[in-house]
Amino acid sequence: MSIISRGFRGRRHEAPADRVPPGQYVTRDFPVLSAGPTPHTPLDQWDFSIAGVVDEPRRWTWDELRALPSEEVTRDIHCVTKWTKLDTTWRGVSVDTLLDGLETSADYVVQYSDGGYTTNLPLEDVTGGKAWVVFEYDGQPLAPAHGGPARMLVPHLYFWKSAKWVRGLQLRAEDQPGFWEINGYHNYGDPWREQRYWGD
Amino acid sequence: MDDTMLDGNAVAGLLQEVFATETTSAMVSCDGCGSASPMGATHVYRGAGFVLRCPRCETALMTLVRGDRRMWIGFLGIRTLQRLAAVRGDALRTRSLDDWLRPVITC
Amino acid sequence: MAGTAVLGRLTWRAADVVEIVPETPRAKTILFDVPGWPGHRAGQHVDIRLTAEDGYQTERSYSIASAPDGSRLALTVVRIDDGEVSPYLTDELRPGDQIELRGPVGGYFVWEPAQGGPLLLVGGGSGVAPLMAMIRLRAAVGSDADTRLLVSSRSWDDVIYRAELERLAGGGLTVVYTLTASRPPGWAGYARRVDAAMLAEVGPSPAEQPRVYVCGPTPFVEAVAEALVTLGHEPARIKTERFGPTGD
Description:
Chain B has 107 residues and is of the alpha+beta class. Chain B has two helices and eight strands; from the N terminus they run βαβββββββα.
């Protein structure tokens, strides 16, 4: 039984219960969390690819990605380390746009990033208006510390499922656990069912 | 490297939970580049969990994830871990001032 | 009597706040009494854990600033304005309160008197805390090891342990300050960020093979460690303790 620290509240904010998944605390900060050093790929060397179980792989340079239709998206985000941030605003390209017209029998996808980070999801969790490749946060170009130039945004799952410094999606017939899924975190990661760790 | 990066020291308590002994002075050799460093000198990144990386080549050596009742240690790139074998319990003993004063008084 | 603590699983212990001592306008030293404390080595730290009434918990690590002293230990906390923990420790905590801590932890960033010198200790802001434990232990055992402490601080008023360092200087201990943001009138000392030229002047030289300990915010430690290596100090003899972006 822990000792209660008299007078300690922490720096948490109130929010309607239906906005805050179980076990989460609302923050106004934007903590910087990463599994490794910040990569710095120059934009003229940057590209985004979709490959794997597809009839033909796709690739966009930075300029080509930016030329695609993009949208502003406001969502709540939930980090497995227990902080939730409400109403975060991003701009990016919907994964539906990137996959438009693509033939695939894949059921799963792996996001992969500069620096070697990976995370996996069912393909249906990045389609149907659920996921974006975003390059702006709060009206500004996405800072490198927060995953810039571009990261994934998949807000219905814990935020480790939104890879920073993303460089592509690999479509797969079989699931393949990513970096944190291999090392203790839940394979799916639904914050509303508090799926933080293996077996939750 | 990164403003938010820490050293292996920062996870000394967590490592001691895992290995049941002081571990920051243990030497860890990297599967990526082969070089050896004290655990306390590894580059520590805080993501969903902690990632300890080789200070020479940034290969991920291990991950530490603490759940509510469980803990996961991911051995990603540790080739070997070398630490002092416990000898009579003395090697693990912490110090009080008396330990240091005794030899000095005889000078 | 040396503590024959069984260093197995670390346990959280109750620590009683004995006294809170203002050091500078932003820093306070908190003196704890920890029943059953096994003693500690200079440079080690503790993890503290705070629990709110609704069960919310958070942990932080703080270097032990004091030399071993029975069941007593001192932590020095610099108040970060929008911090979650430091304002609680500096503004709210009172003698008689209890918090949980575990330790001592760390065996890498440690100095033992038997190791002797020469020593080069470089601290930025609150990074002087573990270095102060080393200096206090050195004094307590009467060591005359050649020790150079270089303190980087924003201003003279922000230098932690100033009076004590002035008292302890001499007998092989040299204390040098660099003030990066503002200086008192007539200041003739360093007035810039620590760099290779300053480190070369403060010494010891690489040829003397000093043990080097660098502690403070991560960017500070990075810059100092890099400068030391370019001067020719062996990387293996440089131990670092990074406190993160703000040093909180």
